[in-house]
Amino acid sequence: MQNGARIEYDYSIAKAFTFATILFGIIGMTVGVILAFQLAFPSLNNLAGEYGTFSRLRPLHTNGVAFGFTLSGIFASWYYISQRILKVSLKESPFLMGVAKLHFILYFITILLAVVTLFMGITTSKEYAELEWPLDILIVVWWVLWGISIFGMIGIRRERTLYISMWYFIACFIAVAMLHLFNNMEVPTALVSGYGSWIHSVSMYAGTNDALVQWWYGHNAVAFVFTTPIIAMIYYFLPKESGQNVYSYKLSILAFWGLMFVYLWAGGHHLVYSTVPDWMQTMGSVMSVVLILPSWGSAINMLLTMKGEWQQLQTNTLIKFMVLASTFYMLSTIEGPIQSIKSVNAIAHFTDWIPGHVHDGVLGWVVFMIMAALFHMAPRMYGREIYSKSLMDTQFWLQTTGIVLYFTSMWIAGITQGMMWRAYDEYGSLVYSFIDTVTVLHPYYTIRAVGGLLYLIGFFMFAYNMYKTATAGRVLDKEPVNASPVAA
């Protein structure tokens, strides 16, 4: 309430990004399942010619999920959360509304162009930074527009105190801007040499320097796309959905600054046993282990928010999504530091344990949290009740089963790979050939593909439920009332 009048929030941009989240989620995850089946059954690589091969589809999958699905979910949540915790509506500023619309349009165009160019094989070949320079410039433009939205909304806010979610959104904006600019310093080859495609470029860095900058960027893209804005979301949606206050605001601040100072130094663990200086490899490993503290600080804070209210897990599927998301965040942030220890890395690196780690974090933490956020937002954005809560519950259990199948199969496959690659006989010769490991891993690849398929089916259920909610859900007279804490 403001001066006795209720603020009318504008959800048009949040709805647009919600649509993009679902669209790019379907594209990215469908491609991911195709890739999983191609690894289990290589003959599937030949079904669609060059455009259907693993090498052509893999960057489409990673970019589609990381920058199509995830960023759309982050932006949808931002345009919903910011108005509510700052107590100001986009309607009140035609300028900021125009900025938000332009942000969505340019973002959507960029991701569509990314899909087209990656399908065509146009890529820088730098992991998570495959898009060529014209698209990199477009990204800078709409990222700056998002920054104008963030600080513009803060500038006209009515709520004096900046809730912790805002801190994490700001960190995402500043860090990703820095990471993107430095890692994507590239020189268009046609401008320099006069030869080659106008869109092709080469990195400004070379050799070890290129690797250092790339994995400073790559690991921190995980930190500031898959972590900080998702924490911002759960710090808002879990208390709202459960009716509980955040367990410890001080712990949220300590965890925030811990993440900020430590995460930026951990990227070197991707380059253990490489030509990178040994002290830098060691620093990456040490900082990764230290990173357990702020990561678990955030996760424990989220779980303790439900202290005394665990019975809500029996009746509220969104609470189940968010609590399990926090649990997977804890799992992922203990697993990563363990893998960064040099003696473990000697077995784990280049094995399937690594994608197992990535996917229990992304599928269990990031995607679960974004879906829970959109489910919470939907009745308030569309003024309609969730179409089917039983479908939501079925989706939860189906996707949870899929994740468990995925990461357990990849853990076993990865450790098996690492041990077989290192096995020597009494003469110092390798016991197993590379094809021996491929043969042994086939059952685990099949289980991974089935787990991914179950998860994808669950995502289609989510998309259908959201569509039906927006178009056919029971019309609500007022916003749903959040659960209220039980009196002590």
Automatic annotation (TrEMBL):
**One Pfam family cited in the UniProt record for this chain:** COX1
Entry keyword Aminoacyl-tRNA synthetase: no
Q: Which cofactor does it need?
A: heme b; heme; Cu(2+)
Domain called Cytochrome oxidase subunit I profile: residue spans: 215-488
**What UniProt keywords are attached to this protein's entry?**
Cell membrane, Copper, Electron transport, Heme, Iron, Membrane, Metal-binding, Oxidoreductase, Respiratory chain, Translocase, Transmembrane, Transmembrane helix, Transport
**Membrane-related topology note:** Multi-pass membrane protein
Q: Which Gene3D superfamilies match?
A: Cytochrome c oxidase-like, subunit I domain
- What's its top-level EC category? translocase
- Chief location of this protein within or outside the cell: membrane
Respond yes or no to whether keyword Metal-binding is given for this record. Answer: yes
* Gene Ontology BP terms: electron transport coupled proton transport; oxidative phosphorylation; respiratory electron transport chain
Q: Which InterPro entries does the entry link to? A: Cyt_c_oxase-like_su1_dom (IPR023616), Cyt_c_oxase-like_su1_sf (IPR036927), Cyt_C_Oxase_1 (IPR000883), Cyt_c_Oxase_su1_BS (IPR023615), Cyt_c_oxidase_cbb3_su1 (IPR004677)
Q: Where are the transmembrane segments?
A: 16-40, 60-81, 102-123, 135-155, 162-182, 215-238, 247-266, 286-305, 317-334, 362-382, 403-424, 444-464
Identify the pathway: Energy metabolism; oxidative phosphorylation
Its EC number(s) = 7.1.1.9
Task: Cite the binding residues for Cu cation.
Answer: 219, 269-270
An annotated GO cellular component of this protein is: plasma membrane
Free-text comment on the cofactor: Binds 2 heme groups per subunit, denoted as high- and low-spin. Binds 1 copper ion per subunit, denoted as copper B.
Single GO MF descriptor? oxidoreductase activity
Residues that, per the record, bind heme b 2; high-spin = 357
Q: Where does it localize? A: Cell membrane
* Catalytic activity annotation: 4 Fe(II)-[cytochrome c] + O2 + 8 H(+)(in) = 4 Fe(III)-[cytochrome c] + 2 H2O + 4 H(+)(out)
Sites where the protein binds heme b 1; low-spin: 61, 359
* PANTHER family per record: CYTOCHROME C OXIDASE SUBUNIT 1, CYTOCHROME C OXIDASE SUBUNIT 1 HOMOLOG, BACTEROID
- Give the family from UniProt: Belongs to the heme-copper respiratory oxidase family.
- The protein depicted here goes by the name cytochrome-c oxidase
| This protein's encoding gene | ccoN
